[in-house]
Design a protein that fits this description.
heterodimer; A: 327 residues; alpha/beta; Rossmann fold; Alpha-Beta Plaits; 2 domains; nine-stranded mixed β-sheet; two-stranded antiparallel ribbon; 12 helices; 11 strands; B: 314 residues; 11 helices; 26% strand; elongated
Chain lengths: 327, 314
């Protein structure tokens, strides 16, 4: 799935988590705000790669720009007038998408179950099946106070979210590069599957946001395995660390075992949901809150790691070789 | 009956709710059977952890795993002696897993969905198939609960086949109630989990993020034609948006779990909500009774509420 690392002028940070709801988007919003206040960063482009449930827009209040339709896969449709009900389509479908209709006479395709593989289309002796391209969602090129935001809305129950993530990232990169932006922040989806892989592809640094719970640690391990699998530089942040200090300690020592550096810890702070309700990054809404203080310290460590990856150094290729000796 | 627990937004408490429902029911049953001879293997509850990218329910249910099988897709194996590099397979493959380059067929296994279209289309019959492992399926017992889960291998993109195979492999026995713990989101892995469910518990939190993603999850339920109700977790943080939305959409709010540090700390340590707040046992049993009563009473997927004038998702 990896796009392969290309010589790019845009340094890419992806925020991951494994477990959902650990605070990826709150952290992304704060980093977008802090990047804006960092003079050495010449401009930031933002991507919400959680196309299933995109929330960065809520936090960063963009002016919605250009909207583009995303055509994902196609689904099969059987033309009842041509179909002779031979049943070959039923036999070849491995996804249980072909069913007899209510009268038990003709076959029809359940569009939600259809994988779009077109096996039935190719095998139908009567050429009674057509593949109908599906509008799977829309993507948007918007403007925020923190930089351009590329985000998407996948229609309910659609496939191809990984494809949509790749597309949105590509458009963000093009726009960022044409505007001379140096930095791209990708707010990733939970999990480690297709959309998470697409979000991480080509990243220079992954920041995994976890929480000090047993489930958080369990899923962090899988996320770290994923970033190691793709040889990404990785930092870990523990959000709501004081809710269970022993859990936070356990994460710190596991990260040491894995050879993964910590970006910092963030305390549980009611300023975070309150900032969300006010639709502002917490570092902007409540700059003196404990969470904001912690996020600024975290940003300092992230910046060091990004500088190693070439941000604001100008010697990207050389540094890149040092940072990714195996790529 | 199949009850799925889903959310849209991640980390709202799906697993907390799914485990609480399962344990409340299992404990009630074991109390009922105590002193009587139990039916051999007679668990009336099947728990499926369908969040194969980040499966966590085992941390709270602590199952003894008895069986393990691989989850696989069937991938093409091309016989180079028979292949003429005609390119028919590459043209048929909708997932760009096959390409013809320099008179040879190139196959990218991680893109293959295992549809078998290439096998059927090859004019030389040069393609056979072999399984490729995507993940692992596990089953076992957790107290009075039959437990099964899928685990996607790290680096694999395709969660859906693992979920599909889990549901086929761990089928409920007659009369067994199935609780499905769904992945977050609203796309294919969630849909694969929810399809075939009789009712969906939507767990959300009362914040703008929670509201936004709840609305998306409700769209999925409507698309699938499955009824559902809402559980508000961490009640008290955030704002009134979720309550207002549920009222406007006639969605029943079935339960509110307040944000309390003690609950958050307990769950962080791997304790269940029922351990921290035993009062929820009765609440989840009542909730289950209400749902099953309505489903059986209604005789269809339509849910009418009597407790409140709000209907289910239709």
């Amino acid at each position: 799935m990896s796009e392969g690392r290309r010589p790019a002028s845009l340094i890419q940070l992806v925020i991951l988590s494994g477990k959902g709801g650990t605070g990826k988007t709150a952290v992304t919003g704060a980093l977008a705000h802090l990047a804006l206040q960092t003079p050495s960063i010449r401009g930031t482009v933002l991507v919400d790669a959680d196309v299933d449930a995109a929330n960065l827009e809520i936090l960063l209040r963009p002016v919605r720009g250009e909207e583009t339709e995303f055509v994902g896969g196609a689904v099969a449709r059987i033309d009842a007038a041509t179909c002779l009900a031979c049943g070959i389509c039923l036999d070849v479908c491995r996804f249980g998408a072909v069913k007899l209709d209510e009268d038990q006479v003709l076959y029809e395709v359940d569009p939600l179950a259809c994988e779009g593989c077109a096996a039935c289309y190719y095998q139908c002796p009567e050429e009674a099946i057509r593949m109908i391209p599906q509008t799977a969602g829309h993507w948007f090129a918007s403007e925020t106070a923190y930089g351009p935001l590329f985000h998407a809305r996948l229609r309910a129950a659609q496939e191809n979210s990984g494809k949509l993530v790749s597309l949105v990232k590509e458009r963000a990169r093009e726009t960022g590069e044409s505007q001379g932006a140096a930095f791209m922040i990708v707010d990733g989806p939970p999990g480690i599957g297709c959309p998470a892989i697409a979000a991480s592809s080509g990243a220079d640094l992954a920041l995994i946001v976890t929480e000090p719970t047993r489930a958080g640690l369990h899923d962090l391990e899988r996320a770290v395995q994923l970033t190691k699998h793709f040889r990404l530089n990785t930092l870990v942040a523990v959000n709501k660390a004081d809710l269970y200090p022993a859990g936070a300690e356990a994460i710190l020592s596991r990260c040491e075992e894995w050879g993964v550096e910590m970006a910092g810890t963030i305390p549980y702070d009611e300023a975070v949901p309150m900032a969300m309700v006010q639709r502002h990054p917490v570092t902007e809404h409540a700059p003196d809150s404990p969470a904001s203080v912690a996020l600024r310290a975290l940003w300092t460590r992230v910046k060091v790691a990004l500088e190693k990856a070439g941000l604001s150094s100008g010697a990207e290729e050389i540094l890149r070789l040092q940072v990714h000796p195996r790529s | 009956m199949r009850i799925a627990v889903a959310s849209g937004k991640g980390g709202t408490g799906k697993t907390t709710v799914a485990v609480s429902v399962a344990r409340s029911l299992a404990e009630e049953e074991s109390a009922f059977h105590s002193g009587q001879s139990r039916t051999p293997g007679g668990s009336s509850l099947l728990f499926l952890d369908c969040d194969v990218e980040a499966p966590d329910a085992h941390l709270f249910l602590d199952p003894v795993i008895e069986e393990r099988v691989p989850a696989t897709v069937q991938i093409p194996v091309i016989d180079p002696d028979m292949c003429t590099a005609c390119g028919d397979c590459a043209e048929a493959c909708q997932f760009s897993a096959l390409a013809v380059l320099g008179g040879e067929v190139l196959f990218l296994p991680e893109l293959c969905h295992g549809c078998g279209s290439c096998t059927l289309i090859c004019p030389e019959k040069a393609i056979t198939e072999a399984p490729r492992e995507l993940g692992i399926l596990e089953s076992g017992r957790a107290g009075g609960i039959s437990f099964a889960r899928g685990i996607l291998n790290v680096g694999e993109a395709l969660a859906v086949p693992v979920i599909r195979q889990l549901k086929e492999w761990a089928r409920p026995a007659d009369g067994q109630t199935t609780i499905l713990d769904a992945p977050p989101g609203t796309s294919c892995p969630t849909v694969e989990t929810l399809s075939g469910s009789d009712y969906v518990l939507l767990v959300t939190e009362p914040t703008p993020f929670g509201l936004h993603d709840l609305a998306l999850a409700v769209d999925v339920l409507r698309e699938l034609g499955v009824p559902g109700g809402v559980i508000i977790n961490r009640d008290g943080i955030g704002d009134e948006g979720v309550e207002e939305y549920c009222a406007a959409e006639s969605l029943p709010v079935l339960l509110r779990i307040p944000f309390e540090r003690e609950i958050a700390e307990g769950i962080a340590q791997g304790r269940t909500l029922l351990d921290v707040r035993p009062v929820y046992r009765e609440r989840f049993r009542a909730l289950f009774q209400m749902i099953s009563g309505r489903l059986i009473g209604a005789g269809s997927h339509e849910v009418e509420t009597e407790a409140s004038p709000r209907g289910g998702v239709t």
